[in-house]
What does this fold into?
Amino acid sequence: MYKNILIPVALDKEHDTQASFKAARQLADADAVFTVVHVQEPIPAYVGSQIPSEVLAHTRHEILENLHKTASEISDAKVQLISGHAGRAIVDFANQSDADCIVLASHKPGFEDIFLGSTANRVVHHAKCSVHVIR
It folds into this structure.
């Protein structure tokens, strides 16, 4: 069904990456390409200036290792670590990579989502391709 599937993941325990991977496999054509992506929120300059560059590099390296480990559950998946506001970065990356489907996990919405909006909500409303949200 889909040939270029983007699977954004949060590297925490609250989001079910297994469910996203399972849904992506079910939606994929036989020759589909999977890209597992994690968005690293930028550190404000006033904070970043106080953190040694080695710590920032080490943190980025650890995130990449966890991302590769998570993505290894889908054979031949590409891995991409991007930076920015999660919702905008996912939509921008999907557009740049010509993704035809985004499969992402979402938390159960709460009161704060009425005012702030969740990542999944932003992706659903702004993506140019199909979006499958897993709860």
Remarks:
- The chain has a mean pLDDT of 90.
- The longest strand covers residues 28-40.
